[in-house]
Amino acid sequence: MLQIQLLRENPQEVIDRLKIKNFDATELVAEIRQLDTDIRNLKKSLDDNLMEQNQGAKQIGQLFKEGRGAEATALKARMAELKEAEKTGRAQLQEQEAQLTGKMVLLPNLPNAAVAPGKGADDNEIIYTEGDASNFDWEALPHWDLVKKYDIIDFELGNKITGAGFPVYKGKGARMQRALIDFFLDSATEAGFTEIQPPYMVNEDSAYGTGQLPDKEGQMYHCQVDNFYLIPTAEVPVTNIYRDVILKESDFPLKNCAYSACFRREAGSYGKDVRGLNRLHQFDKIEIVTVEHPDRSYETLEKMTNYAKGLLTKLGLPFRVLRLCGGDISFTSALTYDLEVYSKAQQKWLEVSSVSNFESYQANRLKLRFKDSTGKTRLAHTLNGSALALPRVLAAILENYQTENGIVVPEVLRPYTHFDIID
User: Which of 120, 225, 332, 353 is least buried, going by the fewest C-beta atoms within 10 A?
Assistant: First the structure.
């Protein structure tokens, strides 16, 4: 959530910068500013009311002592009117503040100056490439055919047990999945991230704190009886560890990693681009989350992106890094890098990570603050990234490492799989 002070002082800047995200904030900003003015006027009125009540309370006793009963009685009546007005005013204030918050959360985060205009994914900027992204000179199989051939993932069985988008990993497929999880977690620990094992359900406050509510409620599975939400990413519970917390400057950076299953309804997703492991309702992912000092958050964003790049280098997968344009960046992000691996069988790029800086947008919702060297309380910056999401990484490994004799296991994974080939 943006800070109200920015909307008071620089409303046109907010409107202009949100145009980069193809969001017209003109009307909403005007409504917010009017509500903010009304609230401040009402607060002044309530303060004046309270001052008059305090003064009147002192005068009533004095008037009775002086034998001026009629004046005292009239003043008591006035005090009763003020108390009733205060009650009404406070109820009105509570309602207006709720309206203000309800409108504030409808404003996306402001994009960083490096975010270029654009309508969608086709306008993203490629800033780095690595590896051989050429296609095989023979007819390679896509992973949905490979997993049938070697009996390592069963999509039909998952459909029987639950539904489409819930695959069953079997034998060497399950061990490859576990190997990737262990490799990613061990790598994150070596890089200084503290491992967290979070709950897979969160309450409404947590979903609100990281921006899933009210923007993405249709994408989350909702357990209505208890009003819990299945997490779309470990970012949600891990970042909420720091909700309503005041840190010290010396605490930065706070670096956490977490493995979790992730659950996304993916409403409206269909067609060839969602086949096999390309898009699932349940999938595994290792998330890295950093809480950082505002002065260092963009330096940290580069470090986190380079860390995710290093994992793909170790896996020997061809990949590229994109800086997302305004039309493709998320509601809550100020700047995002996407990492995509190349599938030589599907002959397409598959996103496996997004690394984002949210600046103070999440922290303002979370009330995540710190005291600086002057003793002033300020909002921290939050960042997160996938390091990495497993389904498409596994799909790329299966497709890119296939041979006539089987699927070769990347060397870095062999200490975890305890086998060199899937055959």
Answer: 225
Residue type (1 letter), 76? K
Residue 122, SS3 per DSSP: helix
Tokens standing for residue 62? 């004095």
Q: Which two tokens stand for residue 35?
A: 């509500």
* 185 to 194, 238, 287, 387, 389: CA distances (angstroms): 10, 15, 9, 9, 12
Whole-number Å distance between alpha carbons of 211 and 107: 11
Judge whether residue 87 has pLDDT over 90.
Answer: yes
Name the pLDDT band for 213 (thresholds 50, 70, 90): confident
Of the candidates 265, 213, 260, 205, which has an alpha carbon nearest to the alpha carbon of residue 235?
260
Helix (H, G, I), strand (E, B) or coil at 179: helix
pTM across the whole model: 0.92
Contact 176, 410 (CB under 8 A): no
Banded pLDDT at 71 (limits 50, 70, 90)? confident
Residue 56: C-alpha distances to residues 25, 89, 175, 274 (Å): 46, 19, 77, 71
- In whole angstroms, how far apart are CA 305 and each of 91, 302, 370? 48, 5, 25
Task: Tell me the C-alpha distance between 352 and 342, whole Å.
Answer: 10
Q: What's the Cα-to-Cα distance from 205 to each of 130, 201, 209, 246, 366, rounded to whole Å?
A: 41, 12, 6, 18, 9
| pLDDT for res 273 | 66
Tokens of 415: 């200490």
Element (H, E) at 355: strand 348-357
Return all residues near 304 (Cβ < 8 A) that are at least 6 apart.
Answer: 288, 290, 355, 383, 385, 387
Sign (positive or negative) of CA dihedral 377, 237, 107, 94: negative
Is residue 335 within 8 A of residue 298, CB to CB? The reply is yes
